[in-house]
Specification:
The chain is an alpha/beta fold. Helix content is 37%, strand content 14%. Helix 2 links the parallel strand 3 and strand 4. Helix 6 packs parallel to helix 8 and helix 8 packs parallel to helix 9. It binds 3-methyl-2-oxobutanoic acid (KIV).
């Protein structure tokens, strides 16, 4: 790529105004210019400061990571949702640190530009800040990721401090935290009404401790807006309305690969499940009929 082809970097007046359908009160926001090299934490911070938005998608394997990376998705999340989107578990709880490292390596090797973040899986960080540092070191050293994401509120501020002290960037995950689904009584919106302040307090405590970003899952849009106003770091939402700096979706939800009922916050941008079924069915028919392989596929 020549320098003339390089997209304009963040922060050099390259942002252009475009209608932003999700913006609160019909406001428009400038679109986020793609940085020429690796997306870094400071680019996400610039997005917050300049009022632009960025996108995060989960990725667990090489090809999905490549496609999203080439598309310009700024952040790839190797989510512990690999447990229920790749490994067939009912919840995120069973996935192990070793399994997370395997998925992380695949995504990190494929991603040329995106910031790659991996989840600290259940059981790999709760015991002590030292346990969190040891697990995160493995994710960065063996999984080759650039940052970790950790579920938990203000109680985990000391853990965030320990990670930051060790040079490990931390994305905080608050609101509905799937690893605590049994404690929270299932998939439920968090931070409604008076509980909103608790979510804001969690965000402030974690950002003060050094988290570079606060992700909120399944909180009312007003709560997410209050969090976004209370912290100077970027925020990311999933089921948190349009007022956050970034948005994230599980890629199989976004692309319509997962069947069954979808959460209210999911938008399907494709129907990969049908496309894949049609391809597999055509292949099956051709194998059965002897049409495949044809002469052009034969040595
Ligand atoms: O693991 C995951 O996919 C996540 C997203 C839901 C944010 O944590």
């Amino acid at each position: 790529m020549t320098s003339a082809e390089l997209p304009a970097p963040y922060g050099e007046g390259a942002a252009s105004s475009s209608p932003s359908p999700g913006a609160p009160n019909g406001q428009t926001r400038p679109s986020t210019p793609t940085p020429p090299g690796r997306v870094r934490i400071h680019h996400l911070q610039q997005a917050k400061e300049q009022g632009t938005r960025f996108a995060m998608l989960t990725a667990y394997d090489q090809y999905a990571a490549q496609v999203f990376d080439e598309t310009g998705i700024e952040v790839l999340l190797v989510g512990d949702s690999a447990a229920n989107n790749v490994l067939g578990h009912a919840t995120t709880l069973p996935i192990t640190l070793d399994e997370m490292i395997l998925f992380s390596r695949a995504v990190s090797r494929a991603a040329r530009r995106a910031l790659v973040v991996a989840d600290l899986p259940f059981g790999s960080y709760e015991v002590s800040p030292q346990q969190a540092v040891e697990s995160s070191v493995r994710l960065l050293k063996e999984g080759l990721v650039h940052a970790v994401k950790m579920e938990g509120g203000a109680d985990y501020a000391d853990t965030v401090r320990a990670l930051v002290r060790a040079g490990i960037p931390v994305m905080a995950h608050i609101g509905f935290t799937p690893q605590s689904e049994h404690a929270l009584g299932g998939y439920r919106v968090q931070g409604r009404g008076e509980a909103s302040q608790r979510v804001v307090d969690d965000a402030v405590a974690l950002a003060d401790a050094g988290a570079f970003c606060v992700l909120m899952e399944m909180v009312p849009a007003e709560t997410a807006l209050a969090v976004d106003a209370a912290v100077s770091v970027p925020t990311i939402g999933i089921g948190a309305g349009p007022g956050t700096t970034g948005q994230v979706l599980v890629w199989q939800d976004m692309a319509g690969l997962r069947g069954g009922r979808q959460a209210k916050f999911v938008k399907q941008y494709a129907d990969l499940r049908t496309a894949l079924a049609e391809a597999a069915s055509a292949y099956l028919d051709e194998v059965r009929s002897g049409t495949f392989p044809g002469p052009e596929h034969t040595f």
